[in-house]
Structures are given as C-alpha cells and as structure tokens.
Amino acid sequence: MDIVQLKIQNNGHTAKYIKIIRKFDDLLSVSEIKQRIENNEFVITFYPYHYDVSDELQGVDRKIIFRDMINDLSAVGANVSIYIDGELSSAEILDKQMKIMSEIMKDVETDIDRETV
User: Fold this and answer.
1) How far apart are CA 81 and CA 87, in angstroms?
2) pLDDT value of position 68
3) Where are the beta strands (DSSP E) in 9-102?
C-alpha cells in the first residue's frame, strides 16, 4: 500500500467536510477542497508510510489522524470513497492493510534491535 486517496460525493454539505479536511491538511485551501469535491476528484492523497522526523519526535501518528478524519467525515454524513493504490476499496480493507504494515514495521524494528546488540 503506497498511496491512499479519498473522494467525497458532492451532496451540498461541503462546508462541513472542508472544516474536517483542513484539520488534517491545512495546506489545502477552502476553494481547492470545494472544487475537488464538486469535480469528483481526489480530495486527499495520503502516503501512509511517508516518514516525517518531526512527527516522530512529537509522537504524532499520521495514519491514526488520517483514519480519524475518515471517521469524522462519515459521522457528519459524507459519502467517502477510499482508493488504495488506485483501486476502489473500503475502510475495513484500509484498516487491515494498515494493521499488517504496522506489524511488519514492528517486526523489522525488533530484528534491527536484535542485530545491533
């Protein structure tokens, strides 16, 4: 899983969705988010395993924040379509893949720790 993208169906409640999306990614402008929703384009593109040292130093897990954003959007009535590596998917599959990748990453860290001792 290299990339996760979201589309949101335009149902007239875009303002609710913009607020939630901007909490996740404040670099996207209000007009850009609105236009993407109206044009049925990918609103958010997320690279779940992109490493950011500042996030790690602050103890921030962007995968959890991303998943919370999807939950928040759904809670206010957004019809969110999730695409994993370009293919339409579901929240359940996203969760399973994220869990598997987290387990693999922990195993790799454990192996590295064992080799350095």
Assistant:
1) 10
2) 93
3) 44-46, 80-84, 87-89
What value, to the nearest 5°, has the Cα angle with vertex 42 and ends 100 and 23? 75
Contacts of 69 by beta carbon, 8 Å cutoff, 6+ apart: 20, 21, 23, 24, 44
Distance CA 20, CA 73 (A): 7
Q: Give residue limits of the domains in the chain.
A: 4-116
| Token pair 């998917």 in the structure block, residue | 89
Distance CA 82, CA 98 (A): 13
Q: For the chain, give the mean pLDDT.
A: 88
Would you state the structure tokens that stand for residue 67, as one six-digit string? 């998943």
- Which position has the token pair 């995968």? 63
Q: Is the pLDDT of residue 117 over 80?
A: no
Q: What are phi and psi of 26, to 5 degrees?
A: -80, 0
The 10s digit of each residue's pLDDT in 38-80 is 999 999 999 887 656 566 666 667 788 899 999 999 999 999 9
Q: What are phi and psi of 54, to 5 degrees?
A: -65, -35
